[in-house]
Design goal:
Elements (H helix, E strand, L loop, with lengths): L8 E5 L4 H5 L2 H10 L4 E7 L3 H4 L7 E5 L13 H6 L3 H10 L4 E4 L4 H10 L4 E7 L2 E4 L2 H8 L11 H9 L14 H13 L5 E6 L11 H12 L4 E6 L5 H13 L6 E3 L6 H9 L4 E3 L3 H8 L4 E4 L6 H4 L7 E5 L17 H4 L2 H11 L12 E8 L5 E7 L4 H19 L14 H30 L4 H25 L6 H13 L5 H24 L14 H19 L1
Helix pairs in contact: 2-8, 7-8, 9-12, 10-11, 10-16, 12-13, 18-19, 18-21, 18-22, 19-22, 20-21
C-alpha cells in the first residue's frame, strides 16, 4: 500500500488594498520553498479579489465583504463575529480544514479575532488573547516597532511579511499570472490606438493627496519626453482620477507635447490593467497599487516618493526600478503629521524626471545633473531581500550606517542566520556612543535588579504590608527605567531597542499579575542582553574593553539633564 505524502495547509488573511494583496507574493513563494506542495488559501476583501486571482501558488481565494468589519473602527467582539449571520458557519468551515499555520497580515484587532477563531497550532501576526490584540511573531512586531525609528528601517514590508510568515530563503521575484482573456483585451486595446509606438504608462493620482505629485508637473514631464522619444503615453487609474488627469493633459498640450496621449482611466479592471502594464516600457507613478502590479508583471517603475511615503517600506519590489525622493530634511514626513508647506511637491523638477525617463528608455546615459532630489535604484542584496542604492543626492552618513547596522542586526536576531551582508567599519559616532554605553551599562543592571526584586516580593505577597512593598518596588522600577529612557530616547543605537522593550512590556497585559512579573524579568534581561550586544558591535574599542562608570554618577547625570530640559520648557 502506497503512503501518500501529507502536505501542509496555510491560511493567509490579507484584508487590505490592491497593492498590499500583490505584495503577498513573496510570502507565497517563501512558503512553497519552506513546504514543497503546501496548499495555501488566501482571505481577501471581495473588492480586491480580482487582484488576488493574479497570484500564482494559491489553492483558493476566499473573498467576503470584510474591510469594514475588520477596520480599526469596528466594535465587533469575538462573540459578535461568531454569531453574525453566515460568518459563524464560514469560520467553522475554515476551522474544520485543520490549517497548520494561520498568517494574519492585517494589523487590526478584528482581523486578529478572525485569525484566532480559525484555531491553528501556529498563528502569526496580530492575534487576539482574551480579547486583547498582540503581535505573535518578532517580524510582525518589527512592522509596528520600526515606525519609531522609521528612517533607520531598511526592510521592505513585503520581505518582512515573508520572513514573519515563513522565514529566510532565496530571492524569488513577484510574478503575477495574467489570464489569456486579459492579454487578448490588451492586444486589442493597443491595436485600437492605431500606432506602434513605444508605450509609457502613467498614473497621476494616488490613494492619498499628500503623496501625489502635481498633475501639471506630470504634463510637463510627458511633454519633455515627447520631444525626444518616439513614445506614446497611456494614462491609467480609477474613474475618480479623471480631474487630475485633465489638468495634466492641459499642461501637456500647453508645454508643447507632440506624441499621442491616450486615456485608459476607469477603463480597465485589475487583470486588464496588469496586461496593459506588461506591454508598457515603464510606469511613471506616485506610490500606488498599480505600481506593485507593474513590478509584478516585470515592468520597470519610476516612482515619485512624496509626503509620508517611505520607499524602503513600500517601494516597487525587485530590481530595476527607480525612486525619486525630494532632498529635504522632512522627507518622508510622519503619516500623522499635518504639512503646512508641501515643499516636496515642487522639489522634483519635471525636466529631470524626463531625463531619467529617457535613460529608462535606453535613449541616453544616466543623467549627471540633478538638483533638490535623491535618486535610488532597486536591486536585491546578498540575503535575498530588496534594497535601494542611492545614486544621487546628499548622503546622511549616520542614517546610512545605522540603517545598514539595524538591517543586519535584526535579520540575525530573528532568523538565527548569519547575514551575508558585508560587515561595516566603525560607527561614525563610535566614540560618543561608546562613552554613552559606558555610562548606561550599570543602569541596565539596576533596572533588572529592580524587576527581580519586584518579582521576589510578588511571589511572597500575602498581606497589606506586602502590597505597600509591591507598590514601592514598582515605583522604583519605573523611576529607574524613566531615567534611562530619557538618556537614550533619541539615540540611533539604543532607541530602537527600547521601543521593542516598551512594546514587549505592553504585550504582557494579557497575563495575570503573577505571570506578568515573572515574564517582565525575562523581558528586561533580554533588553539588557541586546543593549550589550549592540554596544559591543558598534566598532573596535579604542582602548580597554567596554567598561562602566558608577551607576550613581549615571543617575546624577540623567537627573541633571532632565532638570535642564524642564527649566528650558518653563
Amino acid at each position: 500500500m502506497m503512503n501518500h505524502p501529507v502536505y501542509k495547509q496555510v491560511l493567509i488573511l490579507n484584508i487590505a488594498r490592491m497593492g498590499d494583496v500583490v505584495q503577498t507574493m513573496p510570502l507565497i513563494n517563501r512558503l512553497h520553498h519552506e513546504w514543497p506542495g503546501v496548499a495555501i488559501d488566501l482571505i481577501v476583501d471581495r473588492r480586491v479579489a480580482p487582484a488576488a486571482s493574479l497570484l500564482p501558488g494559491l489553492r483558493r481565494v476566499l473573498s467576503r465583504d470584510l474591510s469594514e468589519r475588520t477596520s480599526k473602527g469596528s466594535e465587533d467582539t469575538s462573540e459578535d463575529l461568531q454569531s453574525s449571520a453566515g460568518l459563524a458557519a464560514w469560520l467553522q468551515a475554515l476551522k474544520a480544514r485543520g490549517y497548520d499555520r494561520v498568517i494574519n497580515l492585517t494589523f487590526t484587532r478584528r482581523s486578529g479575532q478572525l485569525a484566532s477563531l480559525v484555531v491553528a497550532p501556529d498563528t502569526r501576526g496580530v492575534i487576539s488573547v482574551n480579547g486583547i490584540s498582540v503581535l505573535n511573531n518578532p517580524w510582525f512586531a518589527y512592522c509596528v516597532d520600526m515606525h519609531r525609528s522609521r528612517r533607520l528601517n531598511r526592510f521592505h514590508i513585503a520581505d518582512l511579511l515573508a520572513l514573519g510568515g515563513s522565514g529566510p530563503g532565496p530571492w524569488m521575484p513577484i510574478r503575477l499570472s495574467v489570464p489569456l482573456w486579459a492579454e487578448s483585451w490588451a492586444d486589442q486595446f493597443f491595436e485600437s490606438l492605431g500606432h506602434r509606438h513605444t508605450v509609457i504608462a502613467v498614473q497621476i493620482g494616488a490613494s492619498h493627496g499628500r503623496k501625489t505629485w502635481r498633475p501639471e508637473n506630470f504634463g510637463r514631464t510627458l511633454a519633455a519626453i515627447s520631444r525626444q522619444a518616439d513614445a506614446a503615453f497611456v494614462l491609467i487609474g480609477t474613474a475618480g482620477e479623471t480631474e487630475p488627469a485633465a489638468h495634466a493633459l492641459a499642461a501637456y498640450h500647453a508645454a508643447g507635447g507632440t506624441q499621442p496621449l491616450h486615456n485608459a482611466i476607469g477603463r480597465t479592471d485589475i487583470p486588464q490593467l496588469a496586461a496593459l502594464l506588461r506591454r508598457s516600457r515603464f510606469l511613471l507613478t506616485n506610490d500606488t497599487g498599480p505600481m506593485h502590479v507593474a513590478a509584478g508583471v516585470g515592468t520597470p517603475v519610476i516612482n515619485l516618493s512624496l509626503g509620508h511615503v517611505d520607499f524602503h517600506e513600500t517601494g516597487p519590489h525587485g530590481p530595476g526600478h527607480w525612486i525619486i525622493q525630494p532632498d529635504i530634511a522632512c522627507a518622508p514626513c510622519d503619516i500623522e503629521q499635518t504639512c503646512v508647506h508641501h515643499v516636496c511637491k515642487d522639489q522634483i523638477i519635471p525636466e529631470q524626471v524626463a531625463a531619467l525617463s529617457l535613460h529608462a528608455l535606453g535613449l541616453r546615459s544616466f543623467p549627471q545633473s540633478w538638483t533638490g532630489v535623491r535618486i535610488y535604484e532597486s536591486d536585491v542584496d546578498a540575503d535575498g531581500l530588496v534594497r535601494y542604492r542611492q545614486r544621487v543626492g546628499e548622503r546622511d552618513l549616520s542614517v546610512d550606517w545605522y540603517g545598514a547596522f539595524w538591517r543586519r542586526y535584526w535579520y540575525e536576531q530573528f532568523t538565527d542566520c548569519v547575514s551575508n551582508l558585508e560587515c561595516q567599519e566603525d560607527a561614525p559616532d563610535f566614540v560618543e556612543q561608546h562613552q554613552r554605553f559606558q555610562r548606561l551599562a550599570p543602569a541596565l543592571n539596576r533596572i533588572v535588579e529592580c524587576a527581580e526584586r519586584l518579582r521576589d516580593i510578588s511571589r511572597h505577597a500575602s498581606s497589606s504590608s506586602s502590597t505597600a512593598m509591591l507598590k514601592a518596588a514598582q515605583n522604583e522600577l519605573v523611576a529607574e527605567r524613566q531615567r534611562v529612557l530619557f538618556f537614550i530616547k533619541d539615540s540611533p543605537v539604543f532607541g530602537p531597542l527600547t521601543t521593542v522593550l516598551l512594546r514587549e512590556l505592553y504585550d504582557l497585559r494579557v497575563l495575570d499579575q503573577a505571570a506578568r512579573v515573572e515574564r517582565q524579568v525575562q523581558t528586561y534581561r533580554i533588553w539588557r542582553k541586546r543593549m550589550h550586544q549592540v554596544g559591543n558591535r558598534l566598532g573596535q574599542t579604542p582602548g580597554a574593553p567596554v567598561g562602566a562608570q558608577p551607576a550613581g554618577q549615571f543617575r546624577e547625570d540623567c537627573t541633571t539633564e532632565v532638570g535642564r530640559e524642564q527649566r528650558a520648557n518653563n
